[in-house]
Each structure stands twice: as structure tokens, then as C-alpha cells.
Write a structure and sequence with these properties.
This protein folds into two domains: 216 residues, no CATH class; 243 residues, Aminoglycoside 3'-phosphotransferase, Chain: A, domain 2 (Alpha-Beta Complex), CATH 3.90.1200.10. Helix 7 packs antiparallel against helix 8. It starts with 19 loop residues before the first helix and ends with a helix. The radius of gyration is 24 Å and the shape is globular. The N terminus is likely disordered. Helices cover 38% and strands 20% of the residues.
């Protein structure tokens, strides 16, 4: 089999044990067309030229649910690994409720198992039983968190339609099953972080219920996780859009409690010196210089290609100013201790409930390689990312709701969040001195604003003023 991390080996080896109908289904052009049309398909600009089976397992007594790990081949000779949970039924015995078929071959019809309630229930049943499914080349392992109550049989299952990179299914209004579609070798940070935080009783998460994974001669990879469903939560981004205008002082108090929850999350993530994956690290002397060099390259690429647009006028020709400000800020010493962090932290990754904030989605930025998402970093990166989210939502009130936010709201939001964060966070995680902390936050905000500007130029030109304002603010703040 092929190693997805290196591309070495023969990806078709695992297909030797596969039923002929599954191989035929993957060879059907309609399967490739279906894959390319899915929201979670990550290579929108590349056409799939072939699908090769890496590994498969039939799950459950009926044997209709098949977990297929499939290499999608592209014309350039590259490939990507996907998980395709499929329901396979005899053409003469197709049952209603599975949705539209993907394709058929040799008298067998293939359906997307994510749309089959019985398939989702079967996956949870396997998780609750901590079952193992052995294959010729490895094992599909299902694991259950002991403190979590098993899901009753026959629970209602409903697929959510909002996610871009994964597939999520709600079961029994108790659990959410997240199926990872595009796979990389190694443990997924979402599982790793939730398992760590759940084991330590951190209250501001949707607790982990269980997971399933594959381990074999080709690779080890996380395939899916199940966690508690939060029924009484309000999306942090939507709540901000509403309350910034209608109840700004109320939302500011909520942001204070979010700052506290963020600090407590970082404290817990730094609490186990015996776990190599989570033990805090003292960054090397080169770490900040490497950060500076990376941002400097991003600045050069971005400012060279800036279009002639009035909305970009405040930063046009100021690439050197940005670099000089960056250089002056990075001469202030080390950046505290490095720990595991959320990595993609913004209001849209939170829910507000009557019990407080719930922090979601510890997968990190999906566009970054999995190994990079597991790297330990300064907790101030998460803080800076959330501060940028305040800038976005304050401007988005006008763009999305045609309302005006209070003129001082973003600044007050920053102050309130930071006050509560710095009160609750372990000072040992931060660099010494308020000036060093402020400068490091500015570096991380600058890095984020540059990323945002590049994204908005490519995808939402009407929003470019938001990252432009952020860059200008950093340039003009002493």
C-alpha cells in the first residue's frame, strides 16, 4: 500500500482482500464524479483520474456498511487519501431512505453511508462496544470513553449540512459524529485535544464520547470522533452580530468570561509535563527569528502583488514599514513557553450556553498539514486570533446586518477579553514584561491580518477593508 505521507509503495495492495463489487464501484466514473462534487472534496481545481482502494472493512452484522479508504489519483501524478463510508445493497433489495445512489456495478448499488441513519447508528454502536475489525493489513479500532453513557439503539440520526471539510451527523439529540473525509497519517488534533481535555474534566468543551481509527502497515489515521451535542448553545459569531448592536455591554461581559475560559484552556493544555505531546516547551532562541522571517516572506509576496484598489490605499507601498515594525518588535526577547493551542480560534468556534462558553473544533486550520497543526506554539497566537475575530465581527455588523456597531466596541472588546485572560492565565506561559507581551501579540495579529488580506483578495474583495484596518492599526500603535 501507499504511504500517504511519502507516496511510497503500492496503494492497491489492500484491494486484494476487497470484494470484486467494491473494486468495480470505485472504477465507475460516476463514483469519481460524485467525489469531486462533495463539499468536503479538498482539491476543487484538480480532476480525479482514478480511485484506488487502500483498505476496507465491512462493519456490523448486516455487512452493508463498508468503510473504504481510497486514494484519489490526479493527472499530475499526485494523490490524496479519503474516507468513503458506503452502504452497499443488492439492486433487488434496495431499501428506502438511503438517498440517491452514487453508482451501481455487478448488481450492487452504492450509497453515501453518511445519509443512511442505520449506518450512523452502526458506527456509534461499534464505538460504544469498543469493537475491533481486523483486516489483512491492519485494524479498524472503535473506542468509547468510559465516563460517557452509550447511545440507545434506534436513536434518530440526521446529517448536518454546514461543514466544508468533514461530515457531521447528529444522533439522538445527544451526540455529534464527525467523519473525517480527507485523511492524513497520524492522530487528528481534534481527537487528541478533546481526549486530553475530557480526561482532565475541562468544562468548556463538548466532551468526547468516543472515536474510530485505522492502524495498519500503510498508515495510522483518525477516521472519526463522537462528542456531546450542545442543544442550548448560541453560535458565538451570530450572537455577536446580534448583541453588538442591541446589547453591547452584555456582550462585553460575555467576552470577559470567554477570556477567562480561554486562559483556563491554555492552563489545562500546559498541565501535564509527563505527556510528550502536551508538555510545555521552552522555545529556542531561533523561534522568534524564524517567525519573523516567515512573516517577512509573506509580506514581500503580498505587497509586491497588491492590486490598484482604493480600499488598499492605506497600506499601498508600505511593505517596508510593516517589515521595519516587525523587526523592531521581534528584538524584545523570547516568547514564553510553547504549548498545544487551539490553532484556529475565533468566535465561530464557540457556543455560548447558560453554563458559559463552549469551545469547538480543535482540528486546527484544515489547509495546514496535520503535523504542522500539532506543533506547540505560544498561547498568545490563540489570543491574537480571537482579537482579530472581534475586528471582523464589528465590521461585519454593517456588511451583514446593515447596522452600525458602537464606534468604540472593538477596543472595549479587546480590553475586556485581555483583562480577564491575563488575570486567569498561568504567567509562566507568557514572556516576561507587559511590553514584550504586547509586542508579541502585535506580531501574531500582523501575521493573521496578512493571511486575512490574502484570503479576502482571493475570495471576498468587499471585505478587504477589515484586514487593511488591522494592518494600519498595528503600524500606528507604538
Amino acid at each position: 500500500m501507499a504511504d500517504p505521507a511519502t507516496g511510497a509503495g503500492d496503494p492497491a495492495t489492500g484491494a486484494q482482500a476487497a470484494p470484486a463489487e467494491l473494486t468495480a464501484l470505485l472504477d465507475d466514473p460516476r463514483m469519481r464524479e460524485w467525489l469531486s462534487a462533495q463539499r468536503w472534496y479538498a482539491s476543487k481545481t484538480r480532476a480525479v483520474t482514478g480511485l484506488e482502494l487502500v483498505e476496507q472493512a465491512r462493519v456490523g452484522a448486516a455487512g452493508q456498511l463498508v468503510l473504504a479508504l481510497v486514494q484519489a489519483r490526479f493527472a499530475q501524478g499526485t494523490h490524496a487519501l479519503y474516507q468513503l463510508p458506503l452502504t452497499l445493497e443488492e439492486r433487488s433489495q434496495v431499501s428506502p431512505g438511503n438517498g440517491d445512489p452514487i453508482c451501481a456495478a455487478n448488481g450492487v448499488v452504492a450509497f453515501d453511508a453518511a445519509r443512511d441513519p442505520s449506518a450512523a447508528r452502526e458506527l456509534i454502536a461499534q464505538i460504544d462496544a469498543s469493537a475491533d475489525v481486523e483486516t489483512e493489513c491492519g485494524r479498524f479500532a472503535f473506542r468509547h470513553v468510559e465516563s460517557s453513557t452509550p447511545l440507545p439503539a434506534g436513536a434518530e440520526a440526521k446529517m448536518l449540512g454546514a461543514e466544508q471539510s468533514n461530515t457531521s451527523i447528529v444522533l439522538g439529540e445527544r451526540l455529534v459524529l464527525k467523519i473525517f473525509r480527507k485523511l492524513e497519517a497520524g492522530i487528528n488534533p481534534d481527537l487528541e485535544m478533546l481526549r486530553f481535555l475530557t480526561a482532565r474534566g475541562f468544562p468548556n468543551i463538548a466532551a468526547l464520547h468516543g472515536w474510530y481509527e485505522y492502524e495498519g502497515t500503510a498508515l495510522a489515521a483518525t477516521l472519526g470522533i463522537a462528542q456531546a451535542l450542545i442543544l442550548d448553545g448560541s453560535d458565538g459569531w451570530e450572537l455577536a452580530l446580534d448583541e453588538i448592536v442591541t446589547a453591547p455591554d452584555t456582550f462585553l461581559e460575555r467576552l470577559g468570561s470567554l477570556g477567562t475560559a480561554t486562559a483556563q484552556m491554555h492552563n489545562v493544555l500546559a498541565s501535564d509535563a509527563s505527556d510528550p505531546a502536551f508538555s510545555p516547551q521552552e522555545p529556542s532562541q531561533e523561534a522568534l527569528a524564524l517567525l519573523s522571517a516567515t512573516i517577512d516572506e509573506d509580506i514581500e509576496r503580498l505587497f509586491i502583488g497588491l492590486p490598484d484598489d482604493p480600499r488598499l490605499a492605506p497600506i499601498a507601498g508600505r511593505g517596508q514599514d510593516v517589515r521595519e515594525r516587525l523587526t523592531s518588535r521581534t528584538q524584545l526577547g523570547a516568547d514564553g513557553r510553547h504549548i498545544r493551542i487551539h490553532g484556529d480560534y475565533h468566535l465561530g468556534q464557540t457556543l455560548h450556553t447558560p453554563r458559559g462558553w463552549v469551545i469547538l473544533d480543535f482540528e486546527g486550520e484544515p489547509a495546514r498539514p496535520l503535523a504542522e497543526r500539532r506543533v506547540k506554539r505560544s498561547p498568545l497566537r490563540d489570543v491574537a486570533s480571537m482579537l482579530r475575530s472581534f475586528a471582523y465581527v464589528t465590521s461585519a455588523v454593517k456588511l451583514l446586518r446593515d447596522r452600525e456597531a458602537p464606534s468604540d466596541f472593538e477596543q472595549r472588546a479587546r480590553i475586556r477579553f485581555l483583562e480577564c485572560y491575563f488575570t486567569a492565565v498561568d504567567p509562566a506561559l507568557l514572556p516576561a514584561g507587559d511590553t514584550t507581551i504586547a509586542n508579541l501579540l502585535a506580531i501574531f495579529e500582523l501575521e493573521k491580518a496578512i493571511y486575512e488580506l490574502r484570503y479576502e483578495l482571493d475570495h471576498r474583495p468587499d471585505w478587504v477593508a477589515i484586514p487593511v484596518a488591522g494592518i494600519v492599526r498595528i503600524l500606528e500603535t507604538s
